[in-house]
Amino acid sequence: MKDATTGTKADAIELLVSQHREVDQLWSQLQAAQSKTIAKHLIDALSRHDAIETQLLYPAVRSTPGGEHLADHSLEEHQRVRELLKGVDGDDPADPEVFARFQECLDAVQHHVEEEESQIFPKLRDALGQEQLTALGAKLETAWAVAPTHPHPSTPNDPLAATAAGIVTGVVDRARDALDK
Fold first, then answer.
1. Residue 114 and residue 139: Cα distance in Å, rounded?
2. pLDDT for 117-128, tens place per residue?
3. CB within 8 A of 127, min separation 6: which ones?
4. Is residue 72 part of a domain?
5. What pTM does this model have?
6. Looking at the 3D structure of the chain, how many domains does it have?
7. Which domain holds residue 135?
8. Is 115 exposed, middle or buried (0-12, 13-18, 19+ CB in 10 A)?
């Protein structure tokens, strides 16, 4: 993704914040329309975002002073969101019980996003510098293209294992999505 004003590649933080705003927009649309199509897009975006952060962002966070605790806490939150997403994947958001589960999931997502943007991202920006953040942004974009499009609560939090699992589940998810069309 290129920055519209400068034409330069987005760094990791800019890319992830942009994804956070996209999820906000999808959630607003789902609240207004309760459409299965919007729900599918929201689940896709959150599943991919989870995968790329687990594979690439949190190892970078661990490399910062005090980053171990932040990464562990964030991965616990990711696990909860994966489980909540699994509970609504493919369900009709027009059903009040399903919509209530979406609400619980997005409340957890919004809490997590606030922590990332206020605590993790500033720490990461200070620790890594622009060149490393830009390189990480490119890796995140590449991983996004092959990331799973559905939640997988059994995904390991280890970056290497998460990457291997993500490649396999990403292929399976795309096949599943193609069959659903």
1. 23
2. 999 999 999 999
3. 63, 64, 65, 67
4. yes
5. 0.93
6. 1
7. 12-176
8. middle
